[in-house]
Amino acid sequence: MTCALVPGVPALLPAYASIEDPVADLRAACLAVVGALGPKVRVVAFSESGARVARHLLDAVGAEEVTDGQAPVLVVANGSAKRAPTAPGHFDERAEAFDDDLRRALLEPLPTALGAIDAQLADEMWADVAAIRTLGDLLAPGDRAEVGYDDAPYGVQYWVVRWV
Amino acid sequence: MTLRLGRRSFADDATLMMAIVNRTPDSFYDRGATWAEDAAFERVAAVVEQGAEIVDIGGIKAAPGEEISAGEEKDRVVDFVARVRASYPSLVISVDTWRAEVGAAACAAGADVLNDAWGGADPELVDVAAEHDAAIVCTHTGGVTPRTRPFRVEYDDVVAAAIGDTVAYAERALAAGVARESIVIDPAHDFGKNTFHSLEVTRRLGEMVATGWPVLVSLSNKDFVGETLGLPVGERLVGTLAATAVCALAGARIYRVHEVVEARQAVDMVWSIAGRRPPRRAIRGLA
């Protein structure tokens, strides 16, 4: 099944638009990956901002949100928000290793690892990973990940990935 | 309403900085600093670099003083307008004059706006604006003679008078053939007004904005700021910016200023507070 991952970054929302887009590259990557999912998309997002971002991205590419279990899936989640002293959650020395493990599990992919993320550690890392566990059910070991974005420009780890 | 100032049009939500450029030896603020043509030209370059959308070139100081003939005023202004136009093809050039004869020559040299600070003292100025498809600024002076100071002026309601006169002037410009989108009104702080009048006009500027005509305010370093704070020329920037902020919140569109950078920051900040302008770059709490 086709699925994609984007981060639930509120700066992507029109209500929070700036004159100079602080997330221009991320936005472009999100639109490309969501646009490639097709006209009907199922959304898996557990945070309020994540759900809003998903709705906005679907609107922006003209896609419709459906609950059909067979539809391509858009998962909204991100890594740690403690990657730098200027990060929302300040710096935590465990954050980079946490994100490295998560990156490997996403990109290999390792469905079992994705389904078994340490929830307490994720909370401590301010990582929005609840929706990623769903990927453990959706992905198979042979799926190929196409990475559209992999960076932590504001101390929060974002990935934009599409699996085919 | 979209605003068109000669060769340039501006969106409904745009605010504009009109930088004062004096070709005078005796204006109150700069005291002749840009009297020499090259100095005035350097001032134009500086304010363009600072982001001013408009330069307002004037050849006669507003206060009483030596009589300046129309010929002398043209000598000071017209060739200079042509020089600025040649160097800045898309800059909006305004000329601060009440005389139709001077306005016509300035428009022929490339001016976009006739800023009549004296409330239509020369009835033919609107015809010049129409003929050259220039914009016109319609100010309120209470009917005083150009270059006179207010003396014991009384109004039943200064804001009603300002609205009545400027809107009547605007309608007269429209009837003369000036494009509707090229007519601006200005309550003209300190012109025909004491400090209490100028403070009230500032406080109630929203009533002028509500007329629908785009509003210009000229507040910069004026005596109503100085008297209110007890400060001389040269120490009025903070007071100017406070008044600027109040006018911006009310929705003024054009700001005639000495200090472009400071006024632009004040107006942008207020415009964003009012929800009319996005922040430059907001990521705090949104990453």
Summarize the model shown:
The complex is a heterodimer of chains A (164) and B (287). Chain A has 164 residues and is of the alpha/beta class.
Mean pLDDT of chain A: 96
Q: CATH topology of chain A, what is it called?
A: Protocatechuate 4,5-dioxygenase, Chain B
Structural class of chain B: alpha/beta
Helix content of chain B: 40-55%
| Overall outline of chain A | globular
Number of helices of chain B: 10
Order of helices and strands of chain A: EHEHEEHHHHEE
Q: Biggest sheet of chain B, open or closed, and with what strands and sense? A: 8 strands, parallel
**CATH homologous superfamily of chain B?**
Dihydropteroate synthase-like
CATH architecture of chain B: Alpha-Beta Barrel
Domain count of chain B, please report it.
1
Q: Name the pair of protein chains with the most residues at their interface, and give those residue counts.
A: A-B, 17 and 10 residues
Strand percentage of chain A lies at 15-25%
CATH class designation of chain A: Alpha Beta
Which CATH class of chain B applies here?
Answer: Alpha Beta
Distance between the termini of chain B: 36 Å
The stretches of 5 or more residues of chain B where confidence is low (pLDDT under 50) are none
Radius of gyration of chain A: 15 Å
Poorly predicted runs of chain A are: none
Question: How does this model look, in words?
Answer:
The complex is a heterodimer of chains A (164) and B (287). With 164 residues, chain A is of the alpha/beta class. Chain A has one domain: LigB-like (Protocatechuate 4,5-dioxygenase, Chain B), CATH 3.40.830.10. Helices cover 35% and strands 18% of the residues of chain A. Chain A has a six-stranded mixed beta sheet, sandwiched between helices. The longest helix of chain A is centred in the first third of the chain and has 14 residues. The mean pLDDT of chain A is 96. Helix content of chain B is 40%, strand content 15%. The radius of gyration of chain B is 18 Å and the shape is globular. In chain B, strands 8-7-6-5-4-3-10-9 form an eight-stranded parallel beta sheet. Chain B has a two-stranded antiparallel sheet with strand order 1-2. In chain B, strand 6, helix 4 and strand 7 form a beta-alpha-beta unit. Chain B has 287 residues and is α/β, with parallel strands linked by helices. Chain B has a single domain, classed as Dihydropteroate synthase-like (TIM Barrel, Alpha-Beta Barrel). Chain B is built from ten helices and ten strands. At the A-B interface, loops of A face loops of B.
